[in-house]
Protein 1
Amino acid sequence: MPTSRISRVNQAASAGGVGVLPAADLRGGTLCVMDLTVILGPMKGGKSLEMISLLSPLQHTGIPHRIYQSARHGRDTAVMSRSGGSLETLKVHTLAGATEGDVEVIGVDEIHMFTVDDIAVLGMAVRAGIKVVVAGIDLDHRGQLFAPVRALFELAPEKVIYRRAVCDVCRSLDATHTQVLEHGKPFIRELAPSTPLPDDGTYTYEARCRRCVVLP
């Protein structure tokens, strides 16, 4: 990424409250800026609002960027915040082609719905100097990290933003889990590890604190 591009991305990032990109790394005489920001938390925690605040300034610049969302996510056609605001997204089944063409910033919503192979693609993007911002739920219905989220941590992100929500049961401010409900009752059936459930109306979801969540 040429120095002029780094400056432009920094300006847009500062406008959105991100701050400047981390220090550059010189590899083989080539300037390589590596930056991975991860936004995690339960449902209703404000992850989408955080992503919108970080990436929406890019819409008013000439910086080439793309924002992806899993095709499995059927609830919205864009990154939508419950507090208002949205970002247009590309619905995809895989991130295999995410780095193709001219792109300086990649955003990925609902990252837990992708695969470990998709995370490897993002790792290559970061090493190539593309700024990557992702958001998603960290814990599955068993209270364990989704495999793609675990793979993200193995990339050693420069910044991790963790959001909590209001518990839908006791109304405390420290909801950390997403309770999956099937016909109004906690979903506790055993699934293959780290299986992302569809967000298409089949199940409903609540934010719950550690005291109120029901785990298998």
Note: The first strand starts at residue 25 and ends at 27.
Protein 2
Amino acid sequence: MKYIILTGISSQVLKELQDDRIRTIEIRSPHNFYSVHGSDVGDLVFLTRTSYHDVKVGTLGLIARIKNKQVAMHRITHMTNEVLEECETFSARLQLELKSIGRVRKIVEFALEKPFVVEADEVTYLEGR
């Protein structure tokens, strides 16, 4: 099955999702934000602690369903040497519900201007090597 993949997720967040089955995360990294921007509530995503450029066939992660999604823009202003600077950043908050553990079978889409998409298989407890 095809999944949008979220990379570089901390081990602690993945463990909490695995233990508690539901976890809300905030996405700020541009590549992960771009990937989830087009997703909808009910979609499945693949989360891994592996960095963006290190994902390969065999990468392990968690498969989760998006239960809730919020996108927000933050405006930051600061003044230095009489110059007012303003910056806007976007973030997405996702409430995720654990579905299973998965392993990447194939990289489908890997380009900065498009969502990162992989094909992955669910891994049963006895296959997890």
Note: The chain has a mean pLDDT of 93.
